[in-house]
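pinging the channel bc i need a second pair of eyes. not urgent but kinda urgent?? the chain im working w is below, pasted from the shared doc
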Amino acid sequence: MAKIRVRRNKAIAAARKKRLQRATPATSGFNMGWQHGYWYGQCESIVQRTTVPYYIRDVHVLFITSGKGFPYSPLDAAVGQTLMQLVSRLTVMSPKDDIVGVASRERPALAVVLDGLDFPVSTIDALRELGIRTAIWFTDDPYYTEVTADLAPHYDFVFTLERNCVPFYEQRGCARVHYLPLGVHTVDFRPRNPRYQLRGDVCFIGSAYWNRIRLFEELLPRMAHRSFKLSGLWWDRLSDYARWRDRIDLGKWMGPTDTAEQYNAHKIVINVHRAHDDSTFNRNLYNVPAVSPNPRTFEIAACGTLLMSDNREDLAQFYTPGVEIVTYDSAQDMADKMDYYLAHEEERRQIALRGLYRTLRDHTYVSRLSQLLDLAMIPLA
């Protein structure tokens, strides 16, 4: 009976595909709506059956936010909301609050600091003197090693999203350093129904660091016939910016909801990792190379769209290229693969759906913070 049902579903899908191919302009809106509804149903099926189990730890955790405001505030909220699910008691404070006073009264078992660049180490030292364990999660490694090199030794546990920073901090006397990339907050990044006017073929959202400028200088003429969108800071660095300005939201820094809607609205979303030695707002004094995936990797895949990413060394630990995501080696390689997957809709969707499943199974903040809590509660030697 199951085999008959599968054959029937395939036959129905094939018949619908033929009807779509015969569509006239008058029926294109209906067809687009049906296509999106079919895709959205597939995504929701994966969302519903990929709930990662977790348990509540009977522990009081003090969470100290980055305190930087936007664009860090959504990350502060994501981590705080997730920790609330994982511990029996959570106290959330900013670096400007009376942290030592509250901690001396409430005696949390663990203080978790996010980012920590605006948090004085004297406060961390005081918490440790009270017998409170301390952990920091660096969110921008390796781009601030000039600062983090001095901060890390003040903590009992150091978590970094960059694998190459593990030996870097160990060499500075940190005894407990763990590789823990950021993940995705599925309240923000998940399959959605985007507005019709936003829909297109390809998009990239992010600041125009120089390695990205070089890539898009070569790529944009190859995708001029496509419906695409760029959004972020400094895109007027493009030598032919005037030609593309109508397709660029210059200087726009979107929050998670707007970003997720753009990801959902496009069939392919490009990821280009920031170069570790870019001259723009870079404080990587120790020139630590970057090999690990950025948060955008997980956020794109969580929206059920096709992630097309440059091939960082650690990426294959998190996704299988060609199966769950697509990687590229050059602008020409990306353009060729873009043409292929936009012409092979079913293949594009299946890779995107497998990427969605892998993300929800392995790469949410529930998974990441569960690891952090379990490691940070190991008895100290």
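so The chain has a mean pLDDT of 92. and Residues 28-48 form the longest helix (21 residues). — does that match what u expected or am i reading it wrong
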